[in-house]
Structure prediction request, 255 residues.
Amino acid sequence: MIAPATGIKQTFYNSFASFLADSGFGVICYDNRGIGKSRKGSINDGNPSLITWGRQDMTAVLEKLKDLFPETTYHLVGHSAGGQLVGLMNNTKNLGSMFNFACSSGSIRNMGFLFKLQAYFFMNVFIPINNLLFGQTNSQWVGMGEPLPKTVATQWSQWCNGSGYVAMAFEKEIDKHAYDEIDIPSLWLHATDDSIANLANVKDMISVFPNLKSEIVTLEPRILGFKEIGHMKFFSSKNKKLWNYAVSFLNENLK
Prediction:
């Protein structure tokens, strides 16, 4: 199950998904509600939020994967929000392992000074003004994927500004979750040229999973022979040799 980043369409992962399929895996990609092909009518129809993305959309996609490929083991590849929201799923007990790339708390306080200013403007000026004027956040105007439903963008801003991504909503917007129940093996990759998922923010996100078996791998683009990896380009076919990290980890955890 390939769980996408915030506002990123399923087609972005097509090459990576095909690589996994060619490596012997059954694969499913999807658009969260309000994004891509899952948008029906108004962008805000169907109550799209980070919480409904995790609790309802991700849960339903895993159930579909189980229907398509019964009597096997199931694993999640999370990109950014795709790994952050896994603890909101109602069926996490069916997951055997989790491979995450660029998955972190996204906490503004842990970012470098210049990027912190950009992130603060986006989260605290751009999002509120867009939501007020358009009823959605036009994140595509600043190269941040698809337009975002109003509540998705609002929660994203609140959680990145807060003391802990997702965790700050526990016992408030989130009454039930499975973050403290997940004890599967997990591998967390991030790149040194990713200003969002830096090491501090990756560790910050892992701390929300108190019983998770986790390992962090830090990718140095120049040492690995890449011009850049950043927050998105792990999934670029130009960086295809990085995909063996995922295949090796998944093969090790098939049981």
Summary: The two ends are 16 Å apart (CA to CA).
